């Protein structure tokens, strides 16, 4: 007998086996009677298990057939996991079931009903880049001023309209610019229809309109799908919610008459995608419009210890308009949540590297069970540098390492051209970026001229005739003027001037999604200043004057590499450093590695040990959201997500000073610290109310081994004696205590051995060999060397 035709017997052995692994809350959700329900599923509460078992239970008890179930997930990974689990639980063919993402299910619907939807049977789907290319073709065809209407902004405008369910006729042109974008939206639609293609937004909108406008077809699917289940409901946008309403029933006299049982599973406390159009208010609308009578809260957490959950619960309680739940666990309190205050962002990163090294050395954790989370992508640069020098393999999850990001590669290419105008690779990368009207054909003519003349692209520019040659000459002149302007400037000034003169910052500021890229470019200024200081140049070391071929015309004693004798300017040394860091220490496929990621990227993941860095006002919570209630509540939800990624150990850190947006900032610690329970926290450094005064605070337990910069004490004691946190040594004195053979540690280069000492007092220099970076002469008045016992 087929499973779905079995009579329901809750006491049968088969049914008991299906349900035995569920706790009471999960069991209630799985065995809900027909009708609408909201399942508030807290972090780590077994949400996927409940969804899958609910479907299996409906099939096993004969309440549903495979074809009568529609389950919507947000990722292909989640859909595949659900199908795999179902296949293992019941002997049914799961491949034909309607379980998938919103876009995947809409694609399926449109393929079946392509004629009714006005599409060719073989319609193609445009990816994001393909869509942008299509808009660029359109702009070129109709002579659109791309400076005034950048194709990417047009793309965002169209996507935003579709997410709101609006066609061009539905958009009010309140000003000339908006009216022009509406006109381009209309032309884009006509072009897509002519070519038989749809973008991702069109998949949703066309499917919604198909159901809305075709009564017989809508009625067919309303009869077919008796059970609709929606995962991650807090992340749905307006159009997705409207699409679900079309499948669930019809509105009459302002009332929704439903035909299906809809179960929405989600967590309003984890709604962190408002910037993508997610609407946490859909959960409240669902309760009201569907007249939901059943609400079940999954509050038992199987992931974290109670100190971590207590911190998460108390933090999120400060948000208003919550549906409300309180996570709990049976695992016990576990380790306290450790809090660390660093003198600077560099010291914070160094502390994390030291702590991770000890965790790994003690064999308590493996690399991949440790994650470092940050609010802004730009924060990763300092952390990557610390891990690089500590020889700790790491992987940037869901993104690129700092020196591998496109905007940073563009900036480095400009800097390389300042050092060497004959660097053809760098020339090719930025000759038309930001766009300056130098097309592929012009570049091809330039390359041919360079080949035939046996010279660099830079030198071949004078051989290119016409308007192409004029534009190329303008680019060469831009680089030449910038080279002249930056002679005798320090590295920070060089980078800053390059970012402005090249147009990179202005280009990304005009991009709707360019804020992260601008932050990364500003972080490059910080990277340069940190480099020259740690390298021993000193922050005010200047570039060497060069001739027209980029060759230094003078030699400064402090800028001679002690190992090779090669003359290096701070810029040349920095470019070498960037190349080395970009090409080293990134974990290979399959290699164990510490995970680095933004908090947004961490959602859905979990780790034994989590570091949340940069908990300062203006950074986390971000300054763009601090002035708005909705924005601040979204930031608090983001912090809640970050905390609940941790299973066993959780570290929170902040810095008194931080280089942000190219400037040193003196930040107050995040308000979130005041929203955490004292009983769950362990301060590794003396707590301060502000950065000028200490505040005693109850302290709990100790880190294992006592290596974290604080002394041992009794568990639960109210006071503790703190040692000074590890900070870089101060300016060396004449009695530096170094001699040939001394083992030392440098914050940038790691461990090394002194080969020789020369000079006295502030002029003293040490020749040190570092295992990874080779031999270097370091000025002891500047370099931060610690003697290794």
Automatic annotation (TrEMBL):
Class of the enzyme per the UniProt entry, highest EC level: isomerase
Gene Ontology MF terms in the entry: 3'-5' DNA helicase activity; ATP binding; ATP hydrolysis activity; DNA binding
Catalytic activity: Couples ATP hydrolysis with the unwinding of duplex DNA by translocating in the 3'-5' direction; ATP + H2O = ADP + phosphate + H(+)
Record flagged with keyword NAD: no
Organism from which the protein derives: Giesbergeria anulus
Protein name per Swiss-Prot or TrEMBL: DNA 3'-5' helicase
Residues reported to bind ATP: 41-48
GO biological process, one term: recombinational repair
Domain UvrD-like helicase C-terminal: from-to ranges: 306-604
